[in-house]
């Protein structure tokens, strides 16, 4: 691919794209996370990380409006998403692309139809043009030639890639990826990381990734939030590599070093 | 060749030469061969009033998780009763396995969730859930009405192919079962009527009985019940599975309202197909009656059909079709509602399908009663 004619400005200069203010996530009286405050800058790859069951995917579902926050709000480019009227919210949703954990492809449609559905709904493209775009998106994720396959006819890893192709169908301004590399083999996983970087560089999209794959976190993450299941709030915020080396929070260092920092601090026991 | 019998697992509490209590464990410990309960050792410890024990596993042959579980349990008992326990001659792997089992302390709040709340709490929670359910259903009804309105206005987002598929599913594909059931219902009605009416020499009125019975009540009702078992359950299972696999979320976050995309074509298909199926069921039922009239009562087919057509008033006929439309709406609503509120597991999908069928059948019968009263008041 040719070099990007408009190289992304330095991280700190980029405008804020997503802002989360005092977000509290709760199910009934059970508070999962409270007082989350962070901002994601345009064109940044932002990682949501934390141990299993700490609420990473739930935070993602709050960001895309599938769950209403118990308190606080989410803003996109300064516009309040949480309190937006239905039409405004739908217009904002159209700027999103979401890859779900299992791909969530519509099982009654072929891959081309899956990718073509949003194109058909929100553009004036003719059917053969839609098909052409769908083929292109499939080619981008390495699935050229699988246009007429149904989701059940391809493997889990392929479903995930097809899900990514659908997520980028409308060249979204924000791409949300829920555990993109979970369940993929290391090579496919690395190719996916490269694809994510490529998408950011070529489309300039802001990308929010939920993951706990350390290799991915360090390869693609510009910025990250660590959700601490113990304290039920944000454990750390910053570049994952810097957090690994310099975070004041031992839980964060432990997570980012697969528990290796445990050995430095924990007393030896027989 | 017969393998020698494995020595059974054994546990004994003994005193060694210095008078200290020793729990001697021996034999082969195999999950498949059962395991001694810790209760007997615990009782023995109580009786002996031992303050410290030593576990001696030197007599253990082969072992698996049964021995690990036994020792972990025994040591927990000792800790709880302030008995010091020491291990002696434990196989290396066994000691490591026990260490692994004891590495992470029990989460104190982990068992709190499993605890059963008191009866009054449960009754209250169930009542609140039911009330919330009414609210949810009202909301669903509103959204479905809006979706259908937008569909009628041609502004709804759905795929034409989905509507056609739903129509095929609710129409042509159901013909076989509707034929079978309606024919048999016609035969049964005629048969029951024939036995009574023959006594008065009024066999010809079997035709009236079957015609009015089918057209007014049974055609619509039997079709409704067949469709709730066939299509209502399928709607709930399909939408429930889509919920589990996040396909519905994927629609919502793409700005495509799931209610329009998924409910509208299904509702429309049933509303369109139910009266046609009902009409068909009426005809087949009358043919079923005619079979009995011809073969058992000796009525000619012509006479029978003539008598039938005289019996059916336009109002009765239209009333039956109107009922079938209403039943169709009820089935589609129950199926889609249960599909949308389905939980996130495979068993939830099964529950959703079951609830959809039960709810739609109850709704159909209740509606049938309401229609009976209404038609009586309107004198139809």
Structure description:
- The complex is a heterodimer of chains A (270) and B (380).
- The termini of chain A are far apart.
- Chain A is α/β, with parallel strands linked by helices.
- In chain A, strand 7, helix 6 and strand 8 form a beta-alpha-beta unit.
- A 6-stranded mixed β-sheet of chain A has the order 6-7-8-3-9-10, with helices on both faces. In chain A, strands 2-1-4-5 form a 4-stranded antiparallel β-sheet, with helices on one face.
- Chain B has a 4-stranded mixed β-sheet with strand order 1-2-3-4, with helices on one face.
- Chain B has 12 helices and 4 strands, in the order ββαβαβαααααααααα.
- In chain B, 70% of the residues lie in helices and 7% in strands.
- Chain B has 380 residues and is α/β, with parallel strands linked by helices.
- Chain B is elongated.
- Chain B folds into 2 domains: 94 residues, STAS domain (Transcription Regulator spoIIAA, 2-Layer Sandwich), CATH 3.30.750; 236 residues, no CATH class.
- Chains A and B meet through helix 2 and helix 3 of A and helix 8 of B.
Which characteristics define this entry?
heterodimer; A: 270 residues; alpha/beta; six-stranded mixed β-sheet; four-stranded antiparallel β-sheet; 10 strands; disordered C terminus; B: 380 residues; Transcription Regulator spoIIAA; 2 domains; four-stranded mixed β-sheet
Helix and strand arrangement:
The complex is a heterodimer of chains A (270) and B (380).
Chain A: E1 16-27, E2 30-41, E3 45-50, H1 56-63, E4 71-76, E5 79-80, H2 86-93, E6 96-99, H3 111-122, H4 127-140, H5 156-167, E7 174-178, H6 186-203, E8 206-210, H7 214-220, E9 223-228, E10 233-238, H8 240-246, H9 250-256, H10 260-265
Parallel strand pairs in A: 3-8, 3-9, 6-7, 7-8
Antiparallel strand pairs in A: 1-2, 1-4, 4-5, 9-10
Helix pairs in contact in A: 3-4, 3-5, 4-5, 6-7, 8-9
Chain B: E1 10-15, E2 21-27, H1 38-48, E3 52-60, H2 65-80, E4 84-88, H3 92-103, H4 119-152, H5 160-170, H6 175-199, H7 205-244, H8 247-253, H9 258-295, H10 301-311, H11 314-340, H12 346-378
Parallel strand pairs in B: 2-3, 3-4
Antiparallel strand pairs in B: 1-2
Helix pairs in contact in B: 2-3, 4-9, 5-9, 6-7, 6-9, 7-9, 7-10, 7-11, 7-12, 9-10, 9-11, 11-12
